[in-house]
Amino acid sequence: MVDFLDELQECVPALRRYARALTRDVDRADDLVQDCLERAIARRGLFQPRGPLRPWLYTILTNLHRNGLRAQRRHGTPLDLDAVPEPATPAPQPGHLALAELARAIDTLPLEQKEALLLVTLEGLAYADAARILDIPQGTLMSRLGRARSALRTLTGTPAEPHLRTVK
């Protein structure tokens, strides 16, 4: 049990990074990670140690996120007035504008493309691992990545950012 919990703890920063990229909300991301960890601990008997724990945790987190989105669609999204930016406030630097534009473009992607893009580019997972996490064939994952990258190029009016390219 200690080995499981130690390995679980090592995965927390990566889970937080992925959750924050998915939700774009620190509080919701932390809640999502906490729910993921609770579920993993409660169901650790289901984990088959054929490989690393991290992909299993990503699968749990991805499924929890999808379930949350379904629930949110049923109940609607409350508007956080504190999160509405001031229109007269300029960005502190051009790089910030580019990152904000890219983040907004990623947010407009269909969920399937967004998940594939974040697992492969942000988390650096191999195609096979990302496909297993999303429970899709590897070819489908590659198609989703291609469509996501193409959409990002169109939305931002630039070629794919170097940090979004996958080196495999």
List keywords for this structure.
168 residues; mainly alpha; Rna Polymerase Sigma Factor, Chain: A; Arc Repressor Mutant, subunit A; 2 domains; 69% helix; DNA binding; transcription; PhyR_sigma2; RNA polymerase sigma-70 factor, ECF subfamily; sigma factor
What do these coordinates show?
InterPro entries: PhyR_sigma2 (IPR053866), RNA_pol_sigma-70-like (IPR039425), RNA_pol_sigma-70_dom (IPR014284), RNA_pol_sigma70_r4_t2 (IPR013249), RNA_pol_sigma_r2 (IPR013325), RNA_pol_sigma_r3/r4-like (IPR013324), WH-like_DNA-bd_sf (IPR036388). Pfam families: PhyR_sigma2, Sigma70_r4_2. GO terms for molecular function: DNA binding; sigma factor activity. This protein is mainly α and about 170 residues long. It folds into 2 domains: about 80 residues, Orthogonal Bundle (Rna Polymerase Sigma Factor, Chain: A); about 80 residues, Winged helix-like DNA-binding domain superfamily/Winged helix DNA-binding domain (Arc Repressor Mutant, subunit A, Orthogonal Bundle). It is about 70% helix and about 0% strand. Helix 6 crosses helix 7. The protein is globular and about 50 Å long. The chain starts with a helix and ends in a 12-residue tail after the last helix. The model has no long low-confidence stretch (mean pLDDT about 85).
